[in-house]
Specification:
Layout (H helix, E strand, L loop, with lengths): L5 E10 L5 E9 L5 E8 L13 H21 L12 E7 L2 E7 L15 H17 L21 H6 L3 H15 L5 E3 L8 E3 L6 E3 L6 E3 L2 H11 L2 H26 L5 H26 L8 H14 L2
Antiparallel strand pairs: 1-2, 2-3, 3-5, 4-5, 6-9, 7-8
Helix pairs in contact: 2-6, 4-7, 4-8, 5-7, 6-7, 7-8
Length: 314
Amino acid sequence: MTGAERVTSTDLIQELWSGYGKILRVHLSGGNRESVVVKYVEIPSSANHPRGWNSSISHERKLKSYQIEIRWYLDWSSGCEAGCQVPQCLGFESVDDEIFLILEDLDAAGFPERPRSIGWQEIEICLGWLAHFHARFMNTEPAGLWPVGTYWHLETRPDELKALDDLPLREAAAAIDHRLSAAENRTFVHGDAKLANFCFSKNLDSVAVVDFQYVGGGCGMKDVAYFIGSCLDEASCAEKEAELLDCYFRQLDTALKQIQPNIDRDAVIEEWRELFPVAWTDFHRFLKGWCPGHWKINSYSEQVARAVVEKLNP
């Protein structure tokens, strides 16, 4: 794996959500790597969700997400090339209620920057990663992964739907989900493509991406909508929507031409453009049930959602 003789020290990178473990940087000596990143999952005796969602459904979803992340790294991650770089999996072990996932240290691999805000150049780079990722796995069956990716997928979030007090949106939830799932052009979605999961090079001109707990099948617009909402404010989302989509689709067209030249690129782009507001509304639906006071619930999202709901329920 690394050939290391011993561990010299460990640094905490972050705690996992709801007390399910931690991510550590482990420093080594005597081997072929000076450090690795270890995702250590320890199943807690009682969950401690920061927003109070401590149901058995939530617990089972998290357990499955860690198992799926292992499957992603073992079975699929090697298919990612320079255009959609991910950390190399060096090994894993599962013992009783503990999981150890050992990954390449992206800091050491040349991706040490984690900016909290980014400009247009960096947004374009992130959209390029998503475009290449979606092109790579276009029309691929997500064997071993979530059949439908993203952590907010309707089927896995019945409690949040029940808590949603926006009645028209709640009544349209199944139709929104069906509209996305029925897309003719499906790929793998990362499922949690927020800015925090994009690791940048020192000069911010390339990225690698982490955290594949919710990778699975679906329409690529889910990732694009979620990413845009993670790094832009309300006014920028509204003002830049067309420009952002043009940027993504330009790079998707190029990536498909290179990676899967037999796919009808125009058909993919036409369908996914129509599904962008549906994907935006799908996450908005989850967010309003999960945390009604969240800062991402704004007039732009409400406007998009109203238009989608009215179209689905005329």
